[in-house]
Specification:
The protein is of the alpha+beta class and 394 residues long. It folds into two domains: 255 residues, L-amino peptidase D-ALA esterase/amidase (4-Layer Sandwich); 120 residues, Ubiquitin-like (UB roll) (Roll). The protein is 34% helix and 26% strand. The strands form two sheets. Strands 1, 2, 3, 4, 5, 6, 7 and 8 form an eight-stranded mixed β-sheet that branches. A six-stranded mixed β-sheet has the order 12-11-10-13-9-14. It is globular and about 70 Å long.
């Protein structure tokens, strides 16, 4: 992986013994100077201890470090889980010489098992020693669970004649369903923005990226996307245009990570972008796209390369919005399968089947009752997904 740096930030990832296979499982991001910060979290009512702790701390809008472990979710672990999350942050703060309130923590892995926080505390000196400006790839590796590869992207922008960098790492391959974001993602930028501006940019970027993907329809208990800005590049985003440009770059980076997560999903063979157009409102288009994207019957048809268009129309019909079945048009890429609610025949079905043999394709449903549209990225359901999750704890 190419060298990736963001001024004033260091990161690292090492094995701490949390994973049985000895893979890296503990990561750290550190800003050499105080950074503005924003974060969004899962809306699942069952929330892990680190999520609850970070919800409180992010209110300050400041952050110096993020400590994250994989291999254990520290969720449904009671008051001891909260004490362990606090102990993680205290150990990191002491090792870095920073205020504990400016240390965020995150965890991912198996739910319901006590966190061996003593292993994290023992590994912290070595982790801090490994901190390096080019440590983002090792951080990305340390936060993986069932991911098959680390996920890291960068973007570069300019403000006031100064260049700045955005670096983002993410993990996610299962329990992926939009409701904030269904994975962990950490973003660093050496641009200068206020915490309020970061919050606006992050919420918009998450809404058009991580909130538009699904693998299995399960919203996790540990979801978190955090963004830090330390201003070390000297690029001060002082105008609305600067903020708009930054938000566009952030959206682009998170969209790439979102697509990567779906491609790398558990047992995924195919990715499908569901495009619903001709709706009366964006919300209605989203609701139809969401329903289609999460239909097990649609997803299994994708796996079987079966152009079973009836399943798609049936899913649209139960999305809870008014529609006229006799106005529906359906396309697989540029092959029209349905016109006015009626199938286009065997020849069209044969062409559509060829489309479904591709690793990636687009399904477009035109409701023909307005001008609004929405897109949603989903995937197939394969036997491998069942096997991976049937044996996840063993």
């Amino acid at each position: 992986m190419a060298t990736v740096e963001c001024l004033g930030f260091k990161s690292a990832g090492i094995p701490a013994g949390l994973k049985k296979n000895g893979d890296p499982d503990l990561g750290l991001i550190y800003s050499a100077s105080p950074a503005a910060a924003a974060a969004v979290f899962t809306r699942n009512l069952v929330q892990a201890a680190p999520v609850l702790l970070c919800r409180e701390r992010i209110q300050s809008g400041r952050c110096r470090a993020i400590l994250v472990n994989s291999g254990n979710a520290n969720c449904c672990t009671g008051q001891q889980g909260m004490r362990d999350a606090v102990a993680m942050s205290a150990a990191a703060a002491a090792a870095l010489g920073v205020d504990e309130d400016q240390v965020l923590v995150a965890s991912t892995g198996v739910i319901g098992q006590p966190l061996p926080v003593e292993k994290i505390e023992a590994a912290l000196p070595a982790l801090v020693q490994k901190l390096a400006p080019d440590g983002f790839p090792r951080l990305a590796q340390a936060i993986m669970t069932t991911d098959t590869e680390p996920k890291l992207v960068t973007r570069r922008g300019t403000a006031g004649g100064r260049h700045y960098t955005i670096v983002a790492v993410a993990k996610g391959a299962g329990m992926i369903r939009p409701d904030m974001a269904t994975m962990l993602c950490f973003v660093c930028t050496d641009a200068e923005l206020s915490a309020a501006a970061l919050d606006r940019a992050l919420r918009r970027a998450v809404d058009v990226s991580f909130n538009r993907i699904s693998i299995d329809g399960d919203t996790s208990t540990n979801d978190m996307v955090a963004l830090m800005a330390n201003g070390r590049s000297g690029a001060r985003l002082a105008t609305r245009e600067d903020e708009r440009d930054f938000t566009g770059l952030l959206e682009d980076a998170l969209r790439e990570l979102a697509r990567w997560i779906v491609r790398d999903g558990e047992g995924v063979n195919k990715t499908a972008e569901i495009c619903v157009q001709g709706a009366r409102s964006t919300d209605e288009a989203y609701r139809v796209a969401d329903t289609i994207a999460h239909s097990p019957l649609v997803k299994t048809a994708f796996f079987g390369q079966d152009a079973n268009w009836g399943r798609i129309l049936a899913a649209a019909g139960r999305a809870g919005i008014p529609l006229d079945p006799e106005r529906l048009d359906l396309y697989f890429d540029d092959v029209q399968m349905v016109a006015g609610g009626v199938g286009c025949g065997p020849a069209a079905e044969a062409q559509a089947t060829a489309v479904l043999k591709q690793a990636a394709f687009t399904v477009t449903l035109d409701l023909n009752q307005g001008a609004a549209a929405a897109r949603f990225l989903t995937c197939d359901f394969s036997p491998d997904y069942v096997h991976i999750n049937a044996n996840y704890r063993t």
